[in-house]
């Protein structure tokens, strides 16, 4: 993949390419933007460019170095991510980064470490990283990826070259889904609106059969057969995915509310369900729909704070029904 594969991030790509062309590579970069806008893809392509055997601005994607970086198997390019139930990057991971960057490059020209989710570092990890940023090793580049800049120390931010990435226009995401994934227009419109301009999130929704899960969760809570249930397919979903699934539910109820107030189907996120939403909206008052949406949002918050999933979902269902 080349920089051309980074859709809709012209500013970020231009800043990186200019640095490569002028051979003015900073010791640390901070890619900042919402999840799913292309931060990790841009970081990988940047890493390829810095170590590509052809030494051009664009990686060739054919040499051994490019292929190893693509498969995350290059000895000079490392990645770390938040781990465990706490979803944090801890000090031991940052110490590994320090030890690795202190060594000379083994195969490539530059040692690179990509810290994906840098805004999830513990306080100890952040302080440890700061030492590396203050005295960066020779021939090394740190690339921090973060969605929430307010969670990072100002001292870390000030020592990085900031590269902003932004959500894409709905029409760009929609066109990409239709062109590359063969999604029909109404479903592409739903995913582009649901993903809020995050192409990576939109592609993930396609791969994870977001339509199927949406229909299942809507059926589970719109037409309940029991007030409290002993088992549901949701219990088998990973905790971090439950939040996304509940997002589809709250958006569905939001559409019921919008149609209830406006009678305009063009304002819906679930455009492919316009007729169904028109029918179901008659069952609820505006006040009731607001109560239901509040109940779903409260449940998402509880689950994010490690509440028992079964209890939280059961209580949500009681509130909805």
Kindly describe this structure:
This protein has 321 residues and is of the alpha/beta class. It is built from 14 helices and 5 strands. A 5-stranded parallel sheet has the order 2-3-4-1-5, sandwiched between helices. Helix 10 crosses helix 11 (239-262) and helix 13 packs antiparallel against helix 14 (309-320). It is globular.
Overall helicity: 40-55%
CATH C-level class of the largest domain? Alpha Beta
Number of strands: 5
Total domain modules: 2
Topology:
Elements lengths: L9 H12 L6 E5 L6 H13 L12 H7 L6 E4 L10 H11 L9 E6 L6 H12 L5 E7 L7 H5 L2 E4 L5 H12 L3 H10 L4 H9 L2 H13 L16 H24 L11 H7 L5 H19 L4 H12 L1
Helix pairs in contact: 2-3, 4-5, 7-8, 7-9, 10-11, 11-13, 13-14
Characteristics:
alpha/beta, Rossmann fold, Zinc Finger, Delta Prime, domain 3, 5-stranded parallel β-sheet
């Amino acid at each position: 993949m080349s920089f051309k594969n980074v859709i809709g991030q012209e500013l970020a790509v231009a800043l990186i390419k200019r640095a490569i062309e002028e051979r003015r590579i900073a010791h640390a970069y901070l890619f900042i933007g919402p999840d799913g806008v292309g931060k990790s893809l841009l970081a990988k392509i940047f890493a390829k460019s810095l170590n590509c055997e052809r030494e051009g601005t664009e990686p060739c994607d054919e040499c051994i170095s490019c292929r190893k970086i693509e498969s995350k198997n290059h000895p000079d390019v490392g990645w770390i991510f938040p781990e465990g139930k706490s979803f944090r990057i801890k000090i031991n991971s940052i110490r590994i980064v320090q030890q690795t960057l202190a060594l000379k490059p083994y195969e490539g020209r530059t040692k690179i470490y990509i810290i994906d989710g840098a805004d999830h570092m513990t306080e100890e990890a952040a302080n440890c990283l700061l030492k590396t940023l203050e005295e960066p090793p020779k021939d090394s580049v740190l690339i921090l990826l973060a969605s929430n800049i307010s969670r990072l120390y100002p001292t870390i931010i000030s020592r990085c070259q900031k590269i902003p990435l932004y959500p894409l226009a709905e029409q760009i995401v929609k066109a990409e889904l239709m062109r590359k994934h063969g999604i029909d227009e109404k479903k592409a419109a739903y995913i582009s609106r649901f993903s809020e301009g995050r192409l990576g999130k939109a592609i993930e929704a396609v791969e994870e059969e977001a339509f199927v899960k949406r229909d299942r969760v809507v059926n589970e809570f719109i037409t309940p057969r029991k007030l409290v249930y002993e088992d549901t397919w949701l219990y088998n979903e990973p905790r971090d995915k439950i939040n996304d699934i509940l997002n589809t539910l709250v958006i569905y109820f939001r559409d019921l509310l919008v149609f209830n107030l406006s009678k305009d189907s063009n304002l819906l996120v679930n455009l492919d369900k316009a007729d169904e939403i028109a029918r179901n909206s008659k069952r609820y008052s505006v006040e009731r729909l607001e109560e239901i949406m509040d109940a779903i949002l409260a449940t998402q918050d509880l689950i994010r704070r490690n509440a028992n999933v079964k209890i939280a979902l059961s209580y949500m269902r009681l509130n909805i029904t």
